[in-house]
Amino acid sequence: MDLGIAGKWALVCGASKGLGFGCAQALVREGVNVVMVARGAEALEAAVQRLIDDPARPKDTAVQHVAADITTPEGRAAAFAKHKEYDIVVTNAGGPPPGDFRDWDRDAWVKALDANMLTPIELIKATVDGMAARGFGRIINITSSSVKAPIDVLGLSNGARSGLTGFVAGVARTTKLASANVTINNLLPGVFDTDRVRSMAAGQSQKTGKAVDEILEGRRAAVPAKRLGTPDEFGATCAFLCSQYGAYITGQNILMDGGAYPGTY
Fold first, then answer.
1. pLDDT at position 235, please?
2. How far apart are CA 214 and CA 88, in angstroms?
3. 161 close to 188: Cβ distance less than 8 angstroms
4. Residue 172 has what pLDDT?
5. Which of 10, 189, 202, 231 reaches 20 to 30 Å from 141, CA-CA?
6. Calpha distance 76→125 (Å, rounded)
7. In the prediction, which pLDDT does 107 show?
8. Residue 251: which of 158, 127, 124, 134 has the closest Cα?
9. What whole-number distance in Å separates Cα of residue 70 and Cα of residue 210?
């Protein structure tokens, strides 16, 4: 299937590994020119090289990178200095740490909101009008399954990502954007095989004494699909939503969790 996005330009945040890398890889394989952003320069450069060496990448497809913190004004300025106008934006930032809400002060909340709500809004604000003028735009926000089913120890994430979800629900449905072939959707990952999930398992291991592998096996067992998701399949879904075939999907929360969410809606 030709997704019809070859030659477009995409900004992919948190792209050095995990779900962000999965999205960048899928877009590059469709012929999309990608600017990858992440804070860690070494990991980012390694990720860029993987995509450049990928035999599935069309040879004229650009893979560029910016080592910066996209949650800061300086980081966003660096991303737009690399390329001014983007047709596709994938927002993504590491989730806030788990804990007890009684221990979080105002600074912790502001940091979570900056990363997981306000930065995506700033990126939307910076790009949607140009997308509308050109008659094409796709914004994908990587959020979390906790938007549908809050996780008690992830209160910072629950709050910040739910705020973003409410904002997107309104702005995505404005006639100025929807009628101009500009869509905004959220991808809600459940448990995927990423460094973050393994890091959280390691933290749980230290508290409980259980082996990391045992904890991960428990997480797999709790998913009806009996496995963790992969960044490749997550990226493929992202690419579809960015495609010409995703034009009639906007303001939606696409849950990818192997069936773990027990609700009807």
1. 98
2. 39
3. no
4. 98
5. 202
6. 12
7. 96
8. 124
9. 36
Joined together, the tokens standing for residue 255 give 């849950």
Condensed to tens digits (0 to 9), the pLDDT of residues 107-156 reads 999 999 999 999 999 999 999 999 999 999 999 999 999 999 998 989 99
- Structural tokens at position 151: 């996780």
Query: Max CA-CA distance within the chain?
Result: 56
Per-residue pLDDT, 198: 84
**Contact yes or no for 165/119 (Cβ under 8 A):** no
pLDDT given for residue 196 in this prediction = 80
CA 84 to CA 80: how far, in whole Å? 5
Q: Report d(CA 231, CA 195) in Å as an integer.
A: 11
What does the chain come to in residues?
265
Low-confidence ranges of the chain (pLDDT < 70): none
Instruction: State the pLDDT at residue 36.
Output: 98
Q: What is the pLDDT of residue 26?
A: 98
- Looking at the chain, which runs of residues are DSSP E strands? 9-13, 33-38, 63-67, 88-91, 137-142, 182-189, 253-256
pLDDT at 122: 98
| HSE of 38, CA atoms in CB hemisphere, 13 A | 22
DSSP states of 185-243: EEEEE-SBSSHHHHHHHHHHHHHH---HHHHHHHHHHTSTTSS-B-HHHHHHHHHHHHS
Gap between the Cα atoms of 161 and 204, Å rounded: 23
CB 5 within 8 A of CB 30: yes
